[in-house]
Specification:
about 300 residues; alpha+beta; 7-stranded mixed sheet; 5-stranded mixed sheet; 19 strands; about 30% strand; globular
């Protein structure tokens, strides 16, 4: 049987929120079968733990933020992406601030934390969501789509009219039957334009952003002394974000995801469209591990 997974032990880390600039302590705990990914703002005595789901994403300004009964947990996409990459189904996420720590701007530090805590199989079958027919969401010329596919693959195109992006591939296709999340995606960092910083900070965003946790771009080039981690790091990070946004569904997808100029709002709109059409998807479990699509054969401790 292909089983659900959780952490072997509790682990904690501290960091800073990318947008709030606040210090954050993050604690990740094992969780029981069928409990899902549960968030808890431990700094708010009146708040109670809640399970992640697409309907709770109510702020998508440069990140995916959960809001329930006025309680916010922001910038969850990188952590959610790492959960997807390591096949974790059930985790309790405790934070003492309104935002996840940004770490180095990628999912790699979260992967390290999770692997350090250890990952264990549980006693219930893993529940996948299998896409049965195409579903898409559009906003102007931007679009994202889910289509039936016996595995998990992602194809994204970005389109920034900027000199730094002309040197980088704007299209990427990753098929996790043949490529590995940890080596191909997890290290890709978030990015931003230095000329937008003043505007973002005036609107309560990017207050914790530095070259230690983001790729920073001026009018012509990347400013980080070490340059890029991948020649196409920009579009790889968009894949990282999309994987995290889609995992807010609470289950791994058996599907093909594609998009043009995708973003957090559009990714969430796609999940809501999928759930709204009961003929477009079904739950799937596997009693025989060999029947599981190849894209998921390499799940923890090695990643997708």
């Amino acid at each position: 049987m292909y089983l659900q997974r959780t952490l072997k032990s509790t682990i904690r880390a501290t960091g800073v929120g990318l947008h709030s600039g606040e210090k954050v302590t993050l604690v990740l705990r094992p969780a029981p079968e069928n409990s899902g990914i549960v968030f808890h703002r431990v700094d708010l005595p009146e708040s109670t733990p809640f399970k992640v789901e697409p309907s709770l994403v109510n702020d998508t300004r440069l990140s995916s933020t959960l809001v329930r009964d006025g309680v916010r947990v922001g910038t969850i996409e990188h952590l959610m992406s790492s959960f997807a990459g390591l096949g974790l189904d059930n985790v309790i996420v405790e934070v003492d601030a309104p935002e996840m720590p940004i770490m180095d701007g990628s999912a790699a530090p979260f992967i390290y934390l999770l692997q350090t805590a250890g990952i264990v199989d549980q006693n219930e079958p893993k529940r996948f969501v299998r896409v049965l027919k195409p579903v898409e969401a559009r906003e102007g010329d931007k679009w994202v789509k889910l289509e039936p596919h016996d595995g998990y693959k992602v194809a994204l195109t970005i389109d920034f009219q900027h000199p730094a992006f002309r040197k980088s591939s704007r299209l990427i296709e990753i098929d996790f039957a043949h490529q590995n999340y940890i080596s191909e995606i997890s290290r890709a960092r978030t990015f931003g334009f230095i000329q937008e910083v003043e505007y973002l900070r005036a609107n309560g965003l990017a207050r914790g952003g530095t070259m230690d946790n983001a790729v920073v771009i001026d009018e012509y080039r990347v400013l980080n002394p070490g340059g890029l981690r991948f020649e196409d790091e920009f579009v790889r990070h968009k894949v990282l974000d999309a994987i995290g946004d889609l995992y807010i569904l609470g289950h791994p997808l058996i599907a093909s995801f594609s998009g043009y100029k995708s973003g957090h709002a559009l990714n969430n709109k796609l999940l809501r469209a999928l759930l709204a059409d009961e003929t477009a998807w079904e739950y799937a479990t596997f009693t025989d591990r060999q029947a599981v699509p190849t894209a998921f054969h390499d799940l923890p401790p090695l990643g997708i």
